[in-house]
Amino acid sequence: MILVTGGAGYIGSHTLSRLKELNEPAIALDNLYSGHRWAIPKGVELVKGNIADQALVEGLIKKHKITSVIHFAAHTAVGESVQNPFKYYRNNTLGSLNLIETCARSGVKHFIFSSTCAVYGNAASNPIRESMPTDPVSPYAASKRMTEVLLHDTEAAGFAMKSVAMRYFNVGGARVAGGLGQATPNATQLVKVAAEVACGKRPKLLIFGTDYPTADGTCIRDYIHVDDLAEAHVQALNYLRKGGKSEIVNIGYGKGYSVMEVVKAMKKVSGVDFAIEIQPRREGDVVAVWADPAKAVSLLGWKPKLDDLDLICRTAYEWERAYQPS
Ligand code: UD1
Q1: Alpha carbon 317 to its chain's center
Q2: What is the mean pLDDT of residues 128-154?
Q3: Best substitution site from 75, 208, 262 to test ligand 1's pocket, by max atoms within 8 Å of Cβ?
Q4: Cβ of 168 less than 6 Å from ligand 1
Q5: How far apart are CA 203 and CA 97, in angstroms?
Q6: Per-residue model confidence as pLDDT tens digits over 52-105
Q7: Which of 50, 81, 137, 216 sits between 20 and 30 A of 43, alpha carbons compared?
Q8: 119 Cβ closer than 6 Å to some ligand 1 atom
Q9: What is the C-alpha to C-alpha distance for residues 29 and 294, in angstroms, rounded to an integer?
Q10: Beta partners for 82?
Q11: How far is the C-alpha of 236 from the C-alpha of 242, rounded, in Å?
Q12: Neighbours of 273 (CB within 10 A)
């Protein structure tokens, strides 16, 4: 049985849905802070609770004979983390510390961790390889990097739990088969926010900085489709099940788009020429990052199928149009 923390959230629910398609038994642990009960696939049990609650997690591991954990539960807004670092270190780092300790002591074998390319900070060059130095520039990024270190040190201390830390680049879009998408309240991610603006749910899109040293002055990111990312988790788990050693793996397509290019794509697929407003730079943002995904491909056998910015924007927009927050 697989325990999916944050299973009611954006990437967690897409991964649960993929696990269900594959008939992989899983249960979700989520405190419903930003996730939704309806996002859990039918037939999958949701336990409402906190990853930091060691008695709860230990009980779940024993009761359900959990052998693998996929850990998504986290706060994810870079800007907010700069304003309120305590919230990020408490939930992301301390929460993960409690979870990892409980899993390791309870005999969990495989642990897949939702990390982020934000751990690289302003990388010296692109594309970014896993061997390049980390230099987190926001509390969000630092909270994730600390969790990677915890996983490493857990194994170094002799626990048998193997891990894959997945450093995602910028995830976007919604399930191609429909019925699922990003429903994070007060989301800050560009693709999600642009889809909300295109649907008239927000009056305009704020562009955080047009004075960066890039061709059009806006930041560059490697946008990946959430279904490809969900599949990468399944493959990471299978890699560990086959006896693979602990690894850190980038998940990105290997190319970058500027904020303005995303705006253009969203306007094109939605047919809505929505308003934008130039704002100062957002604290904690890095200029340009895109992945070298070679390791995910060779090690995990990851074969991304949805490498298409228009498709990412279209699925995000279609989801947003259909979605009414309850
Ligand atoms: C970061 C991480 C990503 C992580 C995510 C969690 C990096 C490079 N990426 O994404 O791995 O999963 O946090 O949330 O650190 N923007 C606007 N207007 C908006 C929203 C965003 O201009 O309304 C701009 C941002 O300033 C940034 C770009 O769009 O330049 C992407 O921002 P966002 O979608 O929030 O993701 P990151 O912060 O890059």
Answers
A1: 19
A2: 97
A3: 208
A4: yes
A5: 40
A6: 999 999 999 999 999 999 999 999 998 899 999 999 999 999 999 999 999 999
A7: 50
A8: no
A9: 32
A10: none
A11: 10
A12: 9
3-state SS record for the chain: CEEEECCCCHHHHHHHHHHHHCCCCEEEEECCCCCCHHHCCCCCCEEECCCCCHHHHHHHHHHHCCCEEEECCCCCCHHHHHHCHHHHHHHHHHHHHHHHHHHHHCCCCEEEEEEEHHHHCCCCCCCECCCCCCCCCCHHHHHHHHHHHHHHHHHHCCCCCEEEEEEECEEECCCCCCCCCCCCCCCCCHHHHHHHHHCCCCCCEEEECCCCCCCCCCCEECEEEHHHHHHHHHHHHHHHHCCCCCEEEEECCCCCEEHHHHHHHHHHHHCCCCCEEEECCCCCCCCECCECCHHHHHHHCCCCCCCCHHHHHHHHHHHHHHCCCC
Q: Which residues are catalytic?
A: 140
285 Cβ inside 6 Å of ligand 1: yes
Q: What is the pLDDT of residue 240?
A: 98
Residue nearest atom 18 in ligand 1 by C-alpha distance: 207
Please tell me the predicted confidence (pLDDT) of residue 325: 81
Please give the angle made by the CA atoms of 36, 18 and 129, to the nearest 5 degrees.
100
Please check whether residue 234 is in contact with residue 19, taking contact to mean a CB–CB distance below 8 angstroms: yes
Q: Report the residue among 34, 184, 282 best suited for mutation to probe ligand 1: largest number of ligand atoms under 8 A from its CB.
A: 282
Percentage of the chain beyond pLDDT 70 is 100
Q: How far is 49 from 35, CA to CA, in rounded Å?
A: 12
- CB 270 near ligand 1, within 6 Å: no
**Residue whose structure tokens are 């008939």:** 23
**C-alpha span between 53 and 49 (Å, rounded):** 8
